[in-house]
Amino acid sequence: MTQNNNKNLLDEAVAEAQSNAPIKSQHHISRAPRGTFKLSRSKMNTILALCAMFISAASFYATYLQAKAAQEQVSAAEKQLKTETWPWLQFSYSNFDLDSTQATIRVDIRNSGTGPAIIHYIKYEFDGENYDDVTELMDACCNLNAYQAALSDAQDEESSINYLKKFGWYVSSAPQKVLLADGDSFNIFTMPKSSFNRGLWDKIDEHKSAFKAQACYCSILKQCYITDEKAAIVEVPSCSTTAKNSIKES
To answer: Transmembrane ranges (predicted)?
Structure first.
């Protein structure tokens, strides 16, 4: 009986304590919804198109740089090849042969370049007239044909004597369509001096500064040039299109 009363008193005390306790209010924190960003289909297509254009432009520029670099390499290789195969022809005139220690008129054309030359033609000029052969030039200057005729007549009268060898001979050549290697020379005209041809020899030697010459030649790469007696060189499209009727001043 006493236990039941105590239990009832305890229950009543707990109930009273609970009824007197402050009621805590529950606060619900509500956050404002964040803003959302959504692309439309047209904007997305525009962005994709711009990206594609940018990638294409970058790719084009990279291709351009590669092509430019390749072109520069090809150009450099062509220039190097041209330099390595460049012929340079020079006329030379001398009036003394060191080997024979004899007064000798000698006209040569020499390749002082780095590659072979194909000589297409040589033309000459004296006193405003043009000539295709060196003997024609010497005859116009100094009556070479008269000298040759006199020697021929003497040879006919006395065939046992070699008058060209005894009284003075000359050699002439026409270097047309001749391949001249670099470092080589081609003899155009040679005349040793003798007591018989002294007058003719001296006359030719006196007029040497009045002679003009011009040669047209091409390299193995078909790059063509014109050179003159002063070694002035001019590049030309081809020797076939170069006028052969006159010699132009350099």
So the answer is: 47-65
